Amino acid sequence: METLLSFFSNIDWYEIWLASVDTLIMLGGSLLFTVLLGLPLGILLFLCSPRQLLEQKALYSALSFVVNILRSLPFIILLVVMIPFTVLITGTSLGVAGAIPPLVVGATPFFARLVETAFREVDRGIIEATQAMGANTRQIITSALLPEARPGIFAAITVTAITLVGYTAMAGVVGAGGLGDLAIRFGYQRFQPDVMIVTVVLLLILVQILQTVGDRLVVHFSRK
Questions:
Q1: Residue 91 DSSP code
Q2: 4 — pLDDT class (breaks 50, 70, 90)
Q3: Pairwise CA distance, residues 44 & 64, whole Å
Q4: Which end of the chain has fewer CB atoms surrounding its CB within 10 Å, N or C?
């Protein structure tokens, strides 16, 4: 027991608590804005794609190009590239406030593609039946597409949330705060493996919680 306690001698549990809170704030804030921006973008991608309700090949190609560019850009590079923009809208590039804009920009295209995929999995017969009843595009989206795609959307939110956990840890490289920042500053730069282990374990626990909650929501909203 003494050996175990001595191994964790570098742990400041108050710092761990503050870092955990910062990670949860970054995750919650960025996930909220990602869903608010990514869901309409995913719907637009689906509607404008070939053989869909609002087929617009030029618009779809332009949106797909932008989404693919942002998705392919490594997040660590996005963090650095967005520093001037982040400072412009938040006044800082550090801490929780400085991390949320690049987190949103990095995750929104990813989430939008998942939403588009979820809509593509909706049975086309349901859309055609809704059209036959005289529904307009907005009614088709709200009455047919969204209810039918709901399990896929919750699955997309779950995957995106887990991805954001990794992004928040990576954001610690540029002083964004949270568990990632703690792991880098103390675990890596100051050679404190106990801090590294605790932060990694907490991140793993967070991922497991998100996955479990997401799976249950998907099952709950899936048709029996």
A1: S
A2: very low
A3: 11
A4: C
